[in-house]
Specification:
By secondary structure, this protein is an alpha/beta fold. The protein is built from eleven helices and nine strands. The protein has two domains: 150 residues, Alpha/beta knot (3-Layer(aba) Sandwich), CATH 3.40.1280.10; 63 residues, Trp Operon Repressor, Chain A (Orthogonal Bundle), CATH 1.10.1270. The protein has a five-stranded parallel beta sheet. The protein has a two-stranded antiparallel ribbon with strand order 3-4.
Length: 247
């Protein structure tokens, strides 16, 4: 899978995505990245890529032609899937990462200033994606999030499929609590079931904790989760117990 990022700040990506799990995936050739400086495709001695907006208003808008030329430089035989990182886009989630991971070539356009000329969005962009309901200085940080989350969905990027399948959001639930040595820390012990060596009981405990954690922290997710009637009843008991304790 290949990511082509159109940006004014390509140097931002190497130090972040070149490390840890994604860095190893790049070295293995599981994923490929290229960072294209839009400014390289501007004209004039000052390599200008922005201008004042028509109709007045504050800020500057990125011009369409340098972006289009940068885009054409990464296009080969088939049209890549083009994403524009924008606070107006669909909110990025695990399902979207899974969808993007099935694609061969994804181009990510990073805007700056007051954004990009609308005509370049109409011309090349397939989807606008947001990482949350807030505004950042540019699209570079959101683009890194998309690349990281999507790359983890590719086979071989993580050490095993099991690692990915128990992570928060992968199956629609939050991950269960994790513990490591020592057995006791500041008076708090690791739950005995995790020390028992009984794998069936451990899996049952983890499932229960995952459901409880999702119910308490992200009730919006539990509504969409695939859970049994028995698990629904367990969650009702947890809710009643917590309500009683708070009274």
């Amino acid at each position: 899978m290949k990511f082509s990022v159109l940006t004014l700040f390509p140097e931002m990506f190497e130090s972040v995505l070149g490390e840890s799990i994604i860095g190893r995936a790049l070295k293995k050739g599981i994923i490929e990245t290229e960072y294209v400086n839009i400014r390289d495709f501007s004209e004039g001695n000052y390599r200008r890529v922005d201008d004042y907006p028509y109709g007045a208003g504050g800020g500057m808008v990125m011009q369409p032609m340098p972006i289009y030329k940068a885009y054409k430089s990464v296009c080969k035989e088939e049209k890549p899937y083009v994403i524009y990182m924008s606070p107006q886009g669909n909110v990025f989630n695990q399902e979207k990462a899974r969808q993007l991971a099935s694609m061969e070539h994804v181009v990510i356009l990073c805007g700056h200033y007051e954004g990009v000329d609308e005509r370049i969005i109409e011309e090349i962009v397939d989807e606008e994606i947001s990482v949350g309901d807030y505004v950042l200085t540019g699209g570079e940080l959101p683009a890194m999030i998309v690349i990281d989350a999507t790359s983890r969905m590719k086979e071989g990027v993580l050490d095993s499929n099991e690692t990915m399948e128990v992570e928060s959001h992968y199956n629609g639930l939050l991950e269960y609590p994790q513990y490591t040595r020592p057995v006791e820390f500041m008076g708090r012990r690791v739950p005995e079931v995790l020390l028992s060596g009984h794998h069936a009981k451990i899996e049952a405990w983890r499932r229960e904790q995952s459901l409880i954690r999702t119910k308490l922290k992200r009730p919006d997710l539990i509504k969409k989760a695939d859970i049994t009637d028995k698990e629904k009843e367990m969650l009702k008991k947890v809710r009643r117990k917590r309500k009683k304790c708070s009274e």
